[in-house]
Design brief:
Helix content: 25-40%
Structural class: alpha/beta
Strand order of the largest sheet: 7-6-5-8-9-10
Number of strands: 10
Shape: globular
Strand content: 15-25%
Oligomer: single chain
Radius of gyration: 17 Å
Distance between the termini: 46 Å
Length: 215
Amino acid sequence: MTIPLLEQLPVEIAKALLEINAVMLRPADPFTWTSGLKSPIYCDNRLTMSYPEIRDRIAEGFAAVIRERYPDCEAVAGIATGGIPHAAWVAQKLNLPMLYVRDKAKGHGKTNQIEGHFTPGQKVVLIEDLISTGGSSLKAAVAVRDAGCEVQGVIAIFTYQFQLAIDAFAAQHITLDTLSNYTALIEVAVQNGAVQQSEVELLLEWRENPQAFGQ
């Protein structure tokens, strides 16, 4: 498969996610997240694992970003749990070592939080499936940095583009790249009829103020 140009990735990946219902939009009938937050979107990128062509398209996208923006990357680390399989596929494509980062250190054995062999100063790119507030991704990135590695950046399949996440990554001086995003998803959803143009304003309002949605 030909690697898509980086500027084409947001739309290409958005189309794929909508195709398999890894992302669903329901502005008129919002979902309720575990936190109780009302949302017009539900994202389950774990579904991509079950579709070989799409997971390979995603892996090629990750690899293209790393080749273009992090050419001296020395290891790929998956963020548990959604980022782990994608990190493995990307590491294989790039012939690089692969690690994964737990939410917290194990309570037994060697009490590792980072699994796999790494060395101080090693340049690492982390792989994630979804960025919402960015909290769990940044926690993993900081753990890798605290272990002595150089965190070059975090790359995710998709982001809601919350300002909270943008600010959080900036505060930690960690670069965030994503293959696709909420803006591209809405564009594709309107084009294929998944949502109506009249619903776009409602969808954009949710991104700007998710706490107030549905109230």
